[in-house]
């Protein structure tokens, strides 16, 4: 338990980091799958060290440390961890095992060692490092200036391959024997699976080589014998199940054998995991591996905010997450090796700008995908959208794509990047996509709907709603009666540019002719139905098509009576981005109250505090250079110390309330 | 049915300040103790909110049942009802536009109503059956309903917070009992007797029932 707390503490402190950060990043191997960098100095500064101390004290961490015999005086500075440098986390994966490592700098080894008092006696390892074993499958190694927590997890599918499993002495066993005609989903191809963990560890050194464990043997189960002898002695009628199958001891013995074998298999797996962990630690400490490339190091460290997550090869990570070796995919002829995404590296950044907390992500695209994406997003929002973003606007969503380019390029894009997923149908589907490309007149369609859309929630309005009630006669016989009541609901308008409105107008006129709707003052009205809880109104004005749940708003727009002042922040967000969505949190408490919606008593205080917040926005500038960029930002209440500090204040408040 | 009601009510009451719904129970009792019962849950006053909530899978850990799941529950309840001794002519109607569910049946004796209540309570693991019992004595012409405020419901309500009165300002439990003989007397001070003296109407605020400010208990004596 204590070691778990200690481990949590170390992970926690790795978030906050007299070694230069460049030294530590060089410890990350070049084949790291995912890397996180924690700008500890910045985090501690922005969070305020005193508040962090208070937070950790209230969370009970210092108390636990003191229980283990160390005294840190309720100050993170006394933990022996260097809080002025960057700490790192990365993961590395082979087909047999996954490793993760936290690397954090130490400022005082003696102080740090005191924290480990409860975890056992440190043992010298290699190259001046000492080690302490923590929970199974993980270890902590450290020297005068660095501490490294390394953990390993076995791949869940590595031993699915029979030849690999038998190489390590693992024998697969099923609780019930499969039917004779059952299809076996296992691929038994030794050549197909390379045991890269074995390659990664230098097994030829001899001393680290795993002692091959003798394959476990299951004692022949008694029921088989019983069945055989019974069958020989008494012929069992064909239509009656053998009596032994109903004997509970038959299943008990099967289960025992199954459990025994599983235990043996687990022992082998655990021994392998620990061996491979030791091999990985030895390899890392000997630095006999290629470090992260300079260009990747730069991508991790350049303009580092608070925390950065960097994925050098998004496509590989994506492939690794997909079960492309599974039988259904192979059965369908789907070859995931041919599957391409065009994605390169990915970066996710958490930063603070005053009282604004930002999460910014970007992804490198290959040239073809970058060029295609630039064409797809080559559209600006209709300038007329701006006047519908007013000070009454609670939130909006705007997206701008070039539908002409989309229709023109999507078939070839699908064929190129997702062709591998189509299996034997690839040719047919590609032919279909080509036919679609020829059949669609993208220029004409782009006139009907060029691709810019704005969905805006413009305040609240009372709507008259019908409901069923009961009236009672003198004899108290109940009769259903329809009554009306006012309900306050958000008013939304969805609008898009349409330079050629003939098709839309014809469709609307047709619906009216079929009595599905009606027109009133130039606005099409459609009554609410089961699938649609509110009536819908459509207005065609200038080159815009507008759909709303509020006829009054559309009447005002039609007669140019929109008088509310413009919301400059929202307009700026929309104009500067290819995609933007924002919500004014300040307006949320009043809105919820007016609508009669309660998020629950425990949230009342939080909701009330939203008055002090600003907007929360998600935006994307589309393609910048060859990167797809997106950003999420939240404007927290204005304080002297900024967003992170405010968040810690809130956590402290929450802890105080418990 | 009860679980469905509880789920729907819980959803509505948890997320809206104005949890409006009606639960109407109508019993027609014949002199020999047989009769007809119809129970209606009407959420149409809150249909916009219920409809919005049903578009979500779960909120705050509470699973929101789909329309298909609700219909399945109702069918299962109806099936149970059909298998209950003394219950016949089971009918049900659902209106998922207005969110109204109605179940009705005939009963051969008053005990069948209690059996029905017990079976459903057991199936849906609700703790209401012992709080609510019906009795009728054809010799004395006395109909009696015993009702004890459920501590289970009270606890559930308390979990929601102390502002329940506001939340349930428009939520009612209505009970109507009609007889073939005129009523000589009844003891519930909030109940009204029909003009023809053959019916009793009791419309109570849901919160008053939960917190024991009102009761469904009554003793109705019919003329001989």
Describe the structure.
The complex is a heterodimer of chains A (658) and B (224). Chain A is globular and about 85 Å long. In chain A, β9 and β10 form a beta hairpin. The N terminus of chain A is likely disordered. Chain A is of the alpha+beta class. Chain A is 37% helix and 24% strand. Among the domains of chain A are: 312 residues, no CATH class; 47 residues. Chain A has a 20-stranded antiparallel β-sheet, with helices on both faces. Chain A has 23 helices and 20 strands. In chain A, 28% of the residues are buried. In chain B, the strands form three sheets. Chain B has a seven-stranded mixed β-sheet with strand order 5-6-2-1-9-12-11. A four-stranded antiparallel β-sheet of chain B has the order 7-8-13-10. Chain B has a two-stranded antiparallel ribbon with strand order 3-4. In chain B, β11 and β12 form a beta hairpin. The N terminus of chain B is likely disordered. Chain B is 31% helix and 34% strand. Classes of the chains: A alpha+beta (658), B alpha+beta (224). The interface between A and B is medium-sized, with 23 and 36 residues.
Strand content of chain A: 15-25%
Rg value of chain B = 18 Å
- How many whole angstroms does the radius of gyration of chain A measure? 33 Å
Number of helices of chain B: 7
Give helix % range of chain A: 25-40%
Write down the overall geometry of chain B: globular
Rounded mean pLDDT of chain B is 80
Shape of chain A: globular
Give unreliable regions of chain B as ranges.
1-18
User: How would you classify the helix and strand content of chain B by structural class?
Assistant: alpha+beta
**Percent range of helical residues of chain B:** 25-40%
Distance from first to last alpha carbon of chain A? 23 Å
Strand order of the largest sheet of chain B: 5-6-2-1-9-12-11
Oligomer: heterodimer
Largest sheet properties of chain B: 7 strands, mixed
